[in-house]
Amino acid sequence: ALPVLRVIGQFGATYIIAEGPDGMYLIDQHAAHERVLYERFWQERQRRQPQVQGFLQPLTIDLSARQRALVREQEEALRAHGFEIEPFGDGACLVRSVPQPLALPGKGDVREAIGRFLDLLLEEDEGDHRDRVAMSLACHGAIRAGKVLSLDEMRELARQLEETESPHTCPHGRPTMLHMSADLLARQFGRR
To answer: Fewer CB in a 10 Å sphere around the end CB: N or C, the chain?
Structure first.
């Protein structure tokens, strides 16, 4: 578990600087947000209540042969996270709903977002199919490096990370943060 952190600021529009009772933390905003989203998607799947964006008119989307094969093979895992995709003619599919993160403002055209998501999922070739979908959704939906965050946004992300079960790594195993103890900092500055 993480201690309660006090957010100080942001470095390089990529790392959140925070203070804890035992030193300083540099939090990778993308990896931290990935962890938060992954656990949220996993819990929603367990409860069978994914956050879904349905469409009044189904979207027609052209998919590559590999993407169509993935949709067929992973139909159950995709449906568990809110996708409703069905074949529609030669090379096309109808999309009736997607997980909400793919349809959020700022994520670009939904058709392009679905294509990027499926390509990302094709790269993930190990583990449980449902976990792979959750990992890819988390990666796609997470705040990107280079995004300037307000102090309130940084505080909220740190708070959400504190509440996760595995706050130290993203779903892919990368660290979400670096910790520098007060003792280490004192030694580095010649105070001890």
So the answer is: N
